[in-house]
Each structure stands twice: as C-alpha cells, then as structure tokens.
C-alpha cells in the first residue's frame, strides 16, 4: 500500500495495550482489537505490546480488578475477593519499565478505562461507596512517570480525528529528532532540524517557535549538554498545543507567499478558494495541503519541499482527510 520506504524500513517503536492488537488477554478472555492501530498505523510502527495484568501473574480468564483508595496512590485489588495485587504489579513493573527503556519506544497507546492501563478517567473506588472517575491506571502511571518526554494517548481519545493526528504527528517528530541526534549533537544538526520543522512548530505555537530560534542561534557557542535538552523541552512543549483551523490558515498563507511570483491569476484564485473553504470547515486540511505540494513540485520550491508540515508522516495514514 505504501510507497514510503523511509518509514517502512525504519519503523517506529510504540508501546501498546496488548488487547488493542486483538490478543485475548482481558479478564474475561476477550480482546479489544483496534483495526486502525493494527492494520493501518501498524504498517509504520513496530508495536511493543504489554498486558500488565497477565505479565505480573494474573490468569486468563481471571477475577476483574479495580483501583481502591487514594486517587494518587490507589491499591489494585480483586473486585470480589479483595486480593491485593499492588506490590506484585509494582515489582513486575520496575523490571518491565527497564526493558521498555531499552526498546527505545517513541510513545504509548493505553487502554481506556483499564485499572492497570488506563491513561486517565479511570474509576477509583473510595470509602462510603464514593467513586472517582479521574484516576490513572497503575501501570499507565508508572509508564508516564518513567518516560516524561514521550507522547501518550488511549484508544478512546484516538477515535477523535484531531487528537489522533496530533498524537501521530508528535510520534513521528520524536523519531526524526532521535534520528537526527544519532548523527551527533552539532550546531549544524540542530539548525537543519529546526529549519525543516519551522512550519510544523509554528502551526502549534508561533511564540515558542521564535523562542526556540534563539536557542538554535547560540548552538555554535554554547555547550551541547545545555542547548539540546533545552531545545527538546521546548519542542515537546510546543507540540502539545492544540492545532486549530486558524493556526493552519496562518501557516498555509505563509507557505502560499512563496509563490507570489510563480502562480498565475487562476492558480492563485484556486488556492485562495480552497483556503476559504477550509477556513469554513467545508473541506479537510488535506485539500489545500495537496495543492500546495503540487505547486512545490511544479515550481521547484526546495525550501518548502523540505518542510515536514507539508508531509509530516506517510499519506497512507489519511490523518488529514478528517481534520
């Protein structure tokens, strides 16, 4: 299906709740297959599946477990028996986290609502028959505390097209960052990365993008041990800002400006009409971006051709068809 050998031959590693790949590991012996994750994104991802409940010693099928007690440090116990799995989960989890670190994962997809693998909005049962709905699964909390610089999502939130696009864009950007840094912490490497990601970062937060430029400017004189972590922290922060139609329009108009002397009147009008339709949410983002990419090739705009905003991930993922 894909023609993008760069990503097929250099797959990104992502952690995932094993049941989302169709494995029958849930407490009742069932699974929660997500076909998009397995069959579409899976073409470009090497999944690292984890089922914390089974891997820490629970059987299939098994008694369902739930979180009980304090919201920030609940216990993991059997629903009927009250058997406490907390210490077992923690002991197993420490070793499993080390193995995940050695895998070099670029993100994690959790299972919505799971007392072990739920990212948020997990039920926590408290005294007086009170139930909180803003807890975090025990294993998910361990993962997020260990890997503070990774993008996380759960399968429920990934049904939202905008959240799905944002998560996958962050994952691919992180992989590009790691690949770039593997070539050495040099000023040239940082300048190249920042230049190619200009429009992508601007689409999230233009103010942070400009602050990042100041860090890049001192890369040749400051020590790498200070510059590169500072830059990455700002990059990670910038990409957490929500993309909006208005932000996309600003960046698309910025790119459009590179063609002032190239496009004829009809071509300019066609582009402006598409941007207007997109601004009114009558068409998806893929429409104006596709036309821009056409103009980039037609008029040999090398600078724009290198902008990851126009091609942030394989087109086969179809993420911009729905935002």
Automatic annotation (TrEMBL):
InterPro entries in the record: 2-thiour_desulf, DUF1722, UCP037004
Location of the DUF1722 domain: 198-314
Classification via Pfam families: 2-thiour_desulf, DUF1722
The organism's place on the tree of life at top rank: Bacteria
Protein name: Uncharacterized conserved protein YbgA, DUF1722 family
Species classification: Bacteria, Pseudomonadati, Thermodesulfobacteriota, Desulfovibrionia, Desulfovibrionales
